[in-house]
Amino acid sequence: MNPEKITIVVLDRNAADLAALTESLKAGGYRVLPASSVAQVENYARKEPVNLVVKGFEAGRVDAIALMRKVRAISRDTEFVLCGQGGTIAIAVDAVHQGAFDYLVKPVEPAALRSVVLKALERQALVAEDPKLRQSLRRRADPDVFVGTSAAMRQVADTLAEVATTDVPILVTGESGTGKELVARALHERSNRHAGPFIAINCAGLPDSLIESELFGHVRGAFTNAINDRPGAFKLAQNGTLFLDEIGDLAPKGQGDLLRVLEDGVYRPVGSPETVRANVRIVAASNRDLARLANEGRFRSDLLYRLNIVELFLPPLRARVEDIPALIESFNRHFCARHNRRPKTFTPEFIAQVTRHPWPGNIRQLRNLIERLIVTVRASAIGIEHAPPLPDPAVVPADDPLLVVPRGTTLAEVEARMIRQTLEKVTSQRSEAARLLGLSRRALHYKLKALKLE
């Protein structure tokens, strides 16, 4: 590998850190392009192949995952190495789950940076040579959510096996954190489209004014600041799978645009006079009751009928507690291999404690706990002292009339009531409320927004 032929973009809004990272990589012989904004990184990627992006975190900014998606929409094999302070580790873990190669803590040692960059470039070279390896690495990037013996997950696995090789739209439902995107990826990898791209779009994050452009792309001059042609999600997913996450939060205009594509099989990029035939498999996901939203007029019933040809319901973790030991062992093998750790053992007391935990964050919460313990616990055995505490009984007083759940109440409504009561009657401090509810502060913030409790 000739370093002079490798292009690395370094993005850091801290001028001193940008200079230090740039100089460290130049010392390794690489061609380094410094950047101070996301737009500048995108411009570099459009003009020439970018092998790797080194992204520095700044306190209060959490745009790493958005940057990865934007750059990979232009250059899907670009690798990412993240650098940040200790307070950004939780964000970095999410980014690594989304496909970043590694994370380094600032101040970054030059030798450590060059070592990680070399490994990232070696993986990039292997992937470029072998498309099958691309799929293998993608599978290794996600732990297995199908392990265990519960009847609910056996039914999911059986249905997935039946429909994977078809092109029918699939609706994946379940609470937040149950592994809906992992199931969508499993559908893609077992389908006849597995050699094509898998593109994931968060519908809740699509501004009304940009929905058409994000889904269908635009041509140069279509609107102000449209200085280049830009492919949309349907173009990027051509011959592959388009995963529409949080479909229940898609704005009404986007629902109509999506319905037209599903009915006609064609779309028109913004500003283009020509239509394009869509050859994608649609997998949608929601943690909301779409039928109820449709009855309330907040989601198009005709779109729901188009999407919900086959539904895969993912049960919450509390409904498949018998799978928890197998999930822990699966996460143990996966994260020990990823982080170069010796496999850990989990004591029976630890297993018993986590089996009794309510896990409001579901598999994602359990996965993050096991990964953190594998990385931070030096001992070979992980015991009950490392298990999360059970919720404080004070959070759920038995005689509180607000906890009476009328027949027909949805799980989302029960969850909203619990969160509201914890903040109003137990503690107004979000960090403490998150601890009592068994959530991270970030997860609580997300739920407050999703349940409109802010």
Give a brief description:
By secondary structure, the chain is an alpha/beta fold. It has helices at 15-26, 38-47, 64-74, 89-97, 110-129, 131-140, 151-163, 180-189, 211-216, 233-236, 252-264, 290-295, 301-307, 324-338, 348-356, 362-376, 411-426, 430-437, 441-450, and strands spanning 7-11, 31-35, 52-56, 79-84, 102-105, 170-173, 198-202, 241-245, 266-267, 276-277, 281-286, 310-313, 345-346, 381-382. A five-stranded parallel β-sheet has the order 2-1-3-4-5, sandwiched between helices.
CATH topology of the largest domain: Rossmann fold
User: What distance separates the N and C termini?
Assistant: 52 Å
Beta-strand content bin: 5-15%
Which assembly state applies to the chains in this document?
Answer: single chain
Rg over C-alpha atoms, rounded to the nearest angstrom: 23 Å
Binned, the helix content reads: 40-55%
What is the number of domains? 4
Protein structure class: alpha/beta
* pLDDT averaged over residues: 82
Enumerate the strands of the largest sheet in spatial order, edge to edge or round the barrel.
2-1-3-4-5
